Amino acid sequence: MDKTQRLFIAINFTAGTRAVLSGWRDELRAIASRGRFSSDENLHLTLAFLGECDDGQLELVQSVLAETEFEAFEISVGRLGRFRRRGGDIWWAAAEESIELMAVQLDLSSRLRAAGFALEDREFVPHITLGRNVRTTTEPWSVKPVSETVGQIDLMLSEHIEGRQIYTVLA
Question: What does pTM read for this prediction?
Answer without folding.
Answer: 0.94
